[in-house]
């Protein structure tokens, strides 16, 4: 603890001669500006539990262009979920099949491609909320109608300002999300509004077309399957009640300028889910749209109060957390690395600072049916700790506390002690059927990791009391899952397993390097929690720690999986990298040999080459390992990659290389990037002395950092 407090003091205290970082100036350097129509530069505003993505009109007018060519335009929250009807009464039990596990059978939901498997894989899924568009003469605005685009996302305030011309007439739009509530604020001004030619369209889709797993489109063509009802209409206010297959929510519209809301339905045109907000006088429409249900009442917000809330929330985020300033660095890669960092900080609060950890594309668009993928969540959450936002880490971790009883019951049903966390689940915490999901295990120690980060920031009795059961039950499962060979006394992991890369048959995966290292570290930390709570060490945990299988090696380098040999050699390309997480994401432990880890990193790096082999979330992964090995130049080289597959789009999102047209906003990339930058700038236990220990000391990297917390 003394070492941690010393490192914390180093990170938080600047030399007497130094001035605090001008945070507003650093953030302003990377505000997003659009001067043309670029579907890869859609802009998202939000607060972690609610988000809206808009196009160059400041609304969602050009839906199809953006969906087809870049980032979808969606309105989402974390708590509105929908399930399609189940007329065949399909049962979750029908997805289960017995799987041999060391002399016994475990029921896993592996029947993915059966009717029940498909139904419970797709359901529930998040509910798409209302869409907001401009119409011109009653028709949705088209790309050929607009010109003179000058749009800015002010990252410091979370506000989008869009200036353009429509058929030669000026239009200025301000768009923002409330700092904490599910409220959108829009203010639009144009002579076309005064003439009545330009109006705001509000319409509602039925659901997502979930037959498309990643980036599913909306279902517009089944109006009879859902209801939109004007349940309250008053001057300046209207409530639209929404219902689809048992999902209910309200859209509360409030406007402060002279206007009226009318239904687009006519005797000739049946459009029961389509409304128009039109000015009755003046050239401005200013309105808020709040989304509410029985547990989330709609606050009475105006445009002014919503804008003020956005400004206050973002000011708190930027000023109270960590910050880095690479403005004085002379290395040509520094500007892009800083841009990726600042924009990623923005996107992580927008997409992951909520009460339910969403899928890997966050709230920007649907993927994996919107379900929480718990294995990569640790990257999304750990960076909140590093960058001084432990409260946001705890907000998501609270979901785990709520799911603890279900996870304990799940472990018991499978014959294990402790808690088994679902790999992929919706808000309800139910496991999702799949051929991979039940076999993933590197999600199981994650709550221990995250609880330990909270304790490092808040080493109090209250922290121990709040997360003690979470840590203990997770550790019980780790010890119970490890299988002891009675002949040797060695504890093994698997088979059957799927390791991080998910590329090897479950029957062949035994003792994967990272998972074994994570088991060792997680049980060690759990023992430390027992000591902090005044409890004696748990004998079973101690036995597993002592006799856990060694990390598999060949020719002085770590293998990804025991028995899967010959990863490296002449002519081989694209070596796996998950074994590097054992020293990078994880700290050094007695389980790992530093020089073997170094040889492994060099072999992976050489085999991937300098042509963009480090892409997606592996950029952060590789940089974490390089920094911990004391090779900062390689760390910045990885973070500065500019190959096509390593590209960050103008608004900070990054496509998933394996699915660039599906997962177009792949946020594990941003999260792992921030984790690496946080480590390089904020340090880690045992890091070299001095500030920013993960950056080269060659004179070209004059990096300033403040407010960062070191990793273990």
Automatic annotation (TrEMBL):
**Keywords, alphabetical:** Signal
- Superkingdom, according to UniProt? Bacteria
Q: Residue span of the signal peptide, if any?
A: 1-18
Q: Per its UniProt record, what InterPro entries does this chain match?
A: 6-hairpin_glycosidase_sf, 6hp_glycosidase-like_sf
- The name this protein goes by in its record: Glycoside hydrolase
Give the source species.
Pelomonas parva
């Amino acid at each position: 603890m003394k070492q941690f407090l010393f490192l914390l003091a180093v990170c938080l205290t600047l030399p007497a001669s130094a001035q605090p970082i001008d945070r507003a100036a650093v953030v302003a350097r990377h505000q997003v500006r659009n001067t043309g129509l670029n579907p890869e530069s859609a802009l998202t505003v939000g607060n972690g539990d609610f988000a809206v993505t808009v196009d160059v009109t400041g609304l969602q007018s050009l839906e199809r262009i953006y969906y087809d060519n870049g980032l979808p335009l969606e309105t989402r929250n974390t708590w509105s979920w929908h399930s399609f009807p189940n007329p065949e009464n399909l049962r979750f039990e029908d997805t289960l099949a017995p799987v041999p596990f060391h002399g016994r059978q475990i029921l896993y939901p592996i029947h993915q491609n059966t009717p029940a498997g498909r139904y419970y894989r797709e359901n529930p899924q998040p509910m798409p909320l209302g869409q907001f568009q401009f119409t011109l003469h009653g028709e949705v605005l088209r790309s050929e109608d607009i010109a003179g685009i000058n749009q800015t996302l002010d990252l410091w305030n979370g506000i989008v300002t869009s200036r353009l011309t429509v058929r030669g007439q000026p239009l200025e739009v301000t768009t923002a999300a409330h700092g904490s509530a599910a409220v959108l604020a829009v203010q639009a001004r144009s002579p076309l509004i005064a003439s009545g030619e330009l109006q705001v369209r509000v319409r509602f889709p039925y659901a997502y077309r979930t037959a498309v797993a990643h980036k599913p489109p909306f279902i517009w063509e089944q109006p009879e399957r859902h209801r939109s009802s004007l349940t309250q209409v008053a001057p300046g206010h209207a409530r639209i009640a929404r219902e689809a297959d048992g999902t209910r929510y309200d859209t509360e519209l409030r406007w402060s300028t002279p206007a009226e809301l009318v239904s687009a339905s006519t005797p000739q045109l049946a459009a029961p889910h389509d409304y128009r907000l039109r000015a009755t006088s003046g050239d401005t429409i200013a309105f808020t749209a709040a989304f509410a249900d029985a547990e989330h009442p709609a606050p009475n917000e105006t445009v002014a109060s919503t804008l003020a809330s956005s400004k206050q929330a973002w000011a708190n985020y930027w000023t109270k957390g960590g910050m880095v300033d690479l403005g004085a660095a002379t290395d040509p890669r520094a500007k892009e690395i800083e841009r990726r960092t600042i924009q990623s900080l923005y996107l992580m609060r927008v997409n992951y600072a909520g009460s339910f950890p969403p899928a890997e594309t966050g709230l920007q668009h649907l993927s994996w049916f919107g379900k929480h993928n718990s294995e990569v969540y640790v990257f999304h959450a750990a960076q909140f700790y590093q960058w001084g936002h432990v409260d946001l880490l705890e907000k998501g971790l609270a979901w785990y506390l709520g799911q603890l009883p279900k996870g304990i019951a799940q472990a018991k049903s499978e014959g294990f002690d402790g808690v088994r966390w679902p790999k992929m689940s919706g808000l309800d915490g139910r496991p999702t059927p799949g051929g991979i999901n039940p076999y993933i295990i590197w999600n199981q120690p994650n709550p221990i990791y995250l609880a330990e980060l909270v304790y490092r920031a808040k080493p109090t009795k209250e922290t121990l009391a709040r997360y003690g059961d979470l840590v203990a039950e997770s550790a019980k499962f780790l010890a119970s899952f490890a299988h002891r060979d009675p002949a040797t006394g060695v504890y093994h992991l698997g088979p059957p397993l799927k390791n991080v890369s998910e590329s090897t048959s479950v029957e062949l995966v035994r003792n994967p390097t990272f998972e074994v290292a994570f088991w060792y570290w997680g049980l060690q930390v759990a023992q430390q929690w027992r000591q902090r709570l005044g409890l004696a060490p748990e004998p079973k945990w101690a036995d597993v720690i002592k006799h856990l299988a060694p990390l598999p090696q060949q020719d002085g380098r770590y293998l990804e999986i025991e028995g899967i040999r010959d990863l490296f050699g002449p002519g081989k390309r694209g070596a796996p990298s998950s074994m590097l997480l054992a020293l990078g994401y994880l700290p050094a432990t007695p389980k790992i040999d530093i020089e073997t880890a170094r040889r492994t990193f060099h072999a992976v790096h050489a085999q991937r080459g300098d042509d963009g082999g480090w892409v997606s979330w592996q950029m952060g992964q590789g940089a974490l390992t390089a920094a911990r090995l004391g090779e900062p130049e390689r760390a910045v080289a990885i973070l500065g990659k500019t190959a096509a597959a390593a590209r960050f789009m103008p608004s900070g999102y990054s496509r998933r290389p394996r699915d660039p047209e599906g997962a177009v906003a792949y946020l594990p990339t941003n999260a792992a990037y921030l984790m690496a930058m946080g480590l390089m700038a904020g340090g880690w236990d045992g890091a070299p002395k001095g500030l920013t220990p993960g950056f080269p000391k060659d004179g070209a990297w004059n990096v300033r950092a403040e407010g960062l917390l070191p990793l273990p």
